[in-house]
Specification:
The chain is of the alpha+beta class and 150 residues long. The chain is 26% helix and 42% strand.
């Protein structure tokens, strides 16, 4: 026969195992994604670093100047014509990119960056470009542009 103490201990062990499995499932499904500021910034950098046709691989902001290293990940030549963020055009240009080419461009943002080391975020990022004879193609960012002020 089982003793009362043994049954209680077995019950608690089973309950603990079920709780750990539930936490692992919630984590894997994404229930804890983006809880920390560092995680959100990392997710932004990963999303923009692999975006297509244009990726943004390096991002620095000081005051209202946002320096971006932009790469053409398309197989064709593209002409970047505009970048809009926070619902404001920050860079109106006609910059040509060959396939795989990287260029550093400076944009002027509406919001000034804070003290060095503080976080910045730009929402609703849209890149407008020309591909061949097609004018006005757009790329929408799936994540905001995030980084630290320099």
């Amino acid at each position: 026969m089982f003793k009362k103490g043994q049954v209680s201990t077995e019950y608690l062990v089973i309950l603990a195992v079920v709780l750990v499995i539930a936490l692992v499932v919630v984590y894997l499904v994404g229930g804890f994604a983006g809880m920390g500021a560092g995680t959100t910034e990392t997710q932004s950098q990963q999303a923009w670093g692999t975006a297509a046709p244009f990726s943004i691989t390096i991002l620095k902001q000081s005051g209202t100047t946002l320096e971006m290293e932009i790469q053409n990940n398309d197989v064709d030549k593209l002409i970047l014509t505009d970048i809009t963020m926070d619902n404001v055009s920050v860079l109106a240009t006609n910059t040509s990119f060959t396939s795989g080419e990287k260029k550093v461009l400076n944009a002027t943002t509406a919001a000034s960056c804070g003290i060095p080391g503080s976080a910045f975020s730009h929402q609703n990022v849209r890149i407008t470009y020309t591909k061949g004879a097609i004018i006005g193609k757009t790329e929408f960012g799936i994540r905001p542009l995030m980084g630290k002020c320099s």
